[in-house]
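Chapter summary example.
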Amino acid sequence: MCAAPKSPPQPGKAAPAFSLPAWPGGKKVSLSQFKGQQNVVLYFYPRDNTPGCTQEACDFRDNLETFQSADTAVLGVSTDSLASHEKFANKFELPFPLLADEEHAVAEKYGVWVEKSNYGKKYM
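The structure predicted for these 124 residues follows.
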């Protein structure tokens, strides 16, 4: 059984801290490195190379200049490995970091690691 999900960060409150390995390069990216420097869009997605996740990533790619002009970095987070992120990013020419939350610790902190149901089948 999973523990009850945590609630997502509330507006006006500090976002939970994290440090995760990122594609490209495998270096750790921490939320704290952006504090006072740049805004951050942190988006979580279930898996690399799935239709909805691919569309979402490509939408961020196609609108990246808008985010950059607002002094905002885009960071994608999923439970996939760095190797999976590398293939996904190269295939779709994604120009922003993809963070590997393989133990889903950050997803849990942000309240997005929850049981889902589709046609009566439950999964994480």
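To summarize the output: The mean pLDDT is 88.
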